[in-house]
């Protein structure tokens, strides 16, 4: 049996029927392309489907905590540090002094529980199926070094070539890994039918958002999703909704609220959100009852502000007594995202900090928001995805700004002068990436720096609880 073509953003209710000229090609596109594309899909109930996966005997959604896989993760530097610089900093108040350089590590930083869990499950899948072909339906997380390690283990990442994803090479009996961001309803359905072994590493916080969107649908609410319409997580979340519109920030949310209160130009609305709404969306009828959901990596404060904006709008339009009939809010802000943002707010308020380094994948949404916090404070902040962006000999750094621009800065450090550097990392960033960046910093100040001697300091940080 071959996988049918499908659209990654297609919802289970009110889906329009589309035909594909390449029925064997599985199309998983950003929302804009999915709406405009030509694919054939089935109406799928997300909640029922997710429950049915457990009954296949081919579905795994929990790690086994296999010690061999853990050892391999430690060897590859894709887990928590237990003996390196970051591990040693944890034992001394997240501080480190190396000559004139003082490093302050954010109180909450780096790998979150859901990301570490996803990487662990991918390693365990390879250990459990050494002879089988393994595929990931997207990058397992947004970290280039981790994804490269998976490729070296012959785990193929199926990437979008601009025309969708080609799953035709995946056969029954192969192993398919769903990444931490999740997979669309249609992907889950088609791979269930395909007869593959499924390893679902979806972060439970992402699944919590899916439950919220599912509730919106069952209660006939339109989902207003705070997120980026082309982000893998938001594409998956939207697939669980019947009707949805995706807003990326307060400005777009205000536009939607103004339309709810005062009406407006329907064609303008449809053009504005053409990339970010469900098929057949009608703003005149589908914004009378709305529920808020969010991409888990968005700015916590912005999601909260959008929630208050929507609540005030519906209260103004329908009155306090009928608010619950027109607005639905469920708590879906990710603890890990919130903790890392709060820790950075504390750090940028520290008068001793001279500059910031943010470490994380350049396509990582949560890392971009950490950089955004530092930039808004007016603090010199350098976002790198790896130590490879730093040239020690020329004292040059190639770094990214919060809104996408790559910038090369020369003489970004001043050897010989005391400096206090704050450092944090995105939720998809292993500790070793931070350690390698700091190694380069220390080399700029002292060309003879030979590294920090490893010292086992005990277990990795306690995992955050699953909610």
Automatic annotation (TrEMBL):
The lineage of its organism: Eukaryota, Viridiplantae, Chlorophyta, core chlorophytes, Chlorophyceae. Residues 8-18 have a biased composition (Polar residues). It comes from the Eukaryota. GO terms for molecular function: 4 iron, 4 sulfur cluster binding; 4-hydroxy-3-methylbut-2-enyl diphosphate reductase activity; metal ion binding. Its EC number is 1.17.7.4. Residues 1-21 are annotated as: Disordered. InterPro entries: LytB/IspH. Keywords: 4Fe-4S, Iron, Iron-sulfur, Metal-binding, Oxidoreductase. One of its GO terms (biological process) is isopentenyl diphosphate biosynthetic process, methylerythritol 4-phosphate pathway. This is 4-hydroxy-3-methylbut-2-enyl diphosphate reductase. It comes from Edaphochlamys debaryana. NCBIfam families: ispH_lytB (TIGR00216), PRK13371.1 (NF009911). PANTHER family: 4-HYDROXY-3-METHYLBUT-2-ENYL DIPHOSPHATE REDUCTASE, CHLOROPLASTIC. The keyword Cell membrane does not apply. Belongs to the IspH family. It holds the Pfam family LYTB. Its cofactor is [4Fe-4S] cluster. It is an enzyme of class 1 (oxidoreductase). Pathway: Isoprenoid biosynthesis; dimethylallyl diphosphate biosynthesis; dimethylallyl diphosphate from (2E)-4-hydroxy-3-methylbutenyl diphosphate: step 1/1; Isoprenoid biosynthesis; isopentenyl diphosphate biosynthesis via DXP pathway; isopentenyl diphosphate from 1-deoxy-D-xylulose 5-phosphate: step 6/6.
